[in-house]
Amino acid sequence: MTGDDEAPVRYSWVAVQSLRNIAPAKYSSANEKSLMEIDTSALVISLLGKNADPVIAARNLRLLGDASPVESSEILESLFREIELLSESDPAILGGLFLAFQRLVARCSPEHIAALDTYKIEAVDRNLPPSTPNRHRWLYPLAAVKTHQSLQALSKILMDRPPTTWVDTGQLLSPLFLSKNWDPADLFPSALAAIEHRSVASPLLDLANFLFRSSRVAVHPAADRCEALCQLLGHVVGRLSRFEEDPRFFGERVDEVQRVLGEAVALSVSLCDALGLIGSDIASGKLHQALELKHRRVQTEAAGALARLGVELGRQRLLELAAEPSARLRVISYAEELGFVDAIDDQYKTPQATAEADLALWLAQPQNMGAPPTSVEVVDSRRLYWPSFDSPVDCYLVKFSYDLGQRHYSNIGITGPLVHTVAADLTELPVDDIYSIYAGWQVEHADIFRVDAKQWNAAQQRLVKPLLEHFDRLGLDQITPTTLGFFVGERALIVRAIRKDEPCIAITDGAETIEVSTSQPLRPFDTDDLWHLYLGRKLLRTFNDQEDYDDA
Length: 552
Fold this sequence. Notes:
Elements (H helix, E strand, L loop, with lengths): L1 E2 L9 H8 L8 H8 L3 H6 L8 H12 L5 H11 L9 H16 L3 H5 L3 H9 L8 H4 L1 H6 L2 H13 L5 H12 L20 H16 L12 H20 L8 H25 L5 H8 L4 H13 L3 H10 L3 H14 L12 H14 L10 E10 L8 E12 L2 E9 L15 H12 L5 E5 L5 H16 L3 E11 L2 E10 L2 E7 L4 E5 L9 H17 L2 H6 L1
Antiparallel strand pairs: 1-9, 2-3, 3-4, 5-6, 6-7, 7-8, 8-9
Helix pairs in contact: 4-6, 5-8, 12-13, 13-15, 14-15, 14-16, 15-17, 16-17, 17-18, 17-19, 18-19, 19-20, 21-23
C-alpha cells in the first residue's frame, strides 16, 4: 500500500465542526428538490401490474428510496387506490417497494406515522401475491402506530399470515421494544395464539419477556402457558440434540441448515428466558436438558433460568461460562440481575474482555459467521473522536480466529463505536488504516457519496479527466476508472490498473493517493474497502489531533 508524498489535506475549524456532526442522512436537499418535481403516485403505479418494466422499476425504486419520509403516505394511498393491480404484480418489485416504504416510515415523525391508515395497510396486505418478499416491512407501521386498532390487526396477521422467518417477525415487532407509548393489553394475550408458528414464537416471547423484565406488566403474559412452553422447549432441545449428533438432520444445504439452526436456537433461548421469568418449578427438568446442549448461548439461557429458580447448578454454570467470550455479556447481565456479579472473576469484567465479548457475540449471530470464534484478542485500543459521536469514544481492534480442521481463518474487527468486520484481510495492515477503514465504512452523510462510472454525466466526466492524468503521471498502466467519489466538496477517482505487471486498485483526489495491490488470491481489497480507507483517513485525521492520533 502506497501514498503520495504531499502533505495530507486538513480542514478548517468550520469544516471540522461540521464533520464532527456527521450522522446518517439518507437523502440530500438536492434529492428532495428533484423528488418534489416527480409525481410519487406515478412512480408507484409504474411498479404495478403484469406489464411493469423491471428496468424502469429499478430506477423508480431508487428514486422512491431517496424520497422525503412524508412520501410514505402517498405510497400507501397509491397502493390502496390501485389495489386491484397488486395480485398480478411482480412480487420482487413489490418487495423492493416495501423495503423503501419501511425505511421512509422509520424516519417519519410520530405525528406522521400516527396518521397512516392501518385499515389501508391491512387491505393492501390481504391482496398481495402469496410469495411477496418483505411483507413484514410493509406491515411495520402497524407496530409503529401502536394504537389498539393497529396492534389488534397485527395480532391477527401474526396468526393468519405470519412472516416468513423469525428475523422478519423481530423486525416487524421492533418498534414495540423501543417505546413505552402503548398498552400491552392491546397485543397480549391475544397474540400468543400465534406462538404455534415457528417464525413468530421467538420474537413474540422476547417481547413478552421484555415487558415483564422492564415491569411494564405485573404478570408475565405467557404465565398461564407454562406447561405448553415446557413441552415446546423439550421439542426444540430434542431437535438441537439430534443436530449435534448429525448436522445433516437439519438439511443438506448450508443455507438451509443455518436457517433452521438459527430459528431453533432463537426459540430455545426465548423459551428458557420466559420459563425462568415465569418462575415455575415445573420447568426445571426441561431447563436441565437444555443445559446439556453444546451451544453456548442455549447453555447460558438455561443456566440463567435455573439460577433464577434457585438451582445452584445454574449459578455455577453461569460463573464458568463467563470465560466464553460469546456468552460473557449475557452471563454478566444475568449475574447483575440475580445479585452475584461479584462472584465473576475480575479478568472477565475489564474493558478489553468486554470488547472481545462484543465481537465474539456479533460473529456468532446467524447473519454473520453463525458460530463463535475459536479465539479473540484485543490487539489495539485508542480513545478517538469518531464520526457521529460528539465526544471521544473508546475503540478496540480485536483479532479473531477460527480453527476449522485443515483450514484457518483470522481477521481483525472493531468494537466500541460499532461492532463490525470486513471480508478483506486486514491482518497485515497498519492499525491506523484498520481504524480508518471502519470509520469510512460507518459514515453516512448527504455530502459523501459515490457515482459508478457507467452513470457519469458530462460534468462528472470533465472532473475525472485531470485525475486520470494524475494516475498516468504516477506510472500506472491499463487504467480503468470505476467510481467517482464525493467528500464534502472534494472529488476522488477510484480505478483498477496495473503496476509492474501486478493488478491493483487506486484512489486519488489529486493531492493524496492510495494504491493497493489486488494480487493476493484470498480476500483481497476491493474498491469499497479502498473508498472506506480514503474516507476514514480524512475523517480521523480531521477529528483527532494528528500527533495524538499517530502516537496513540
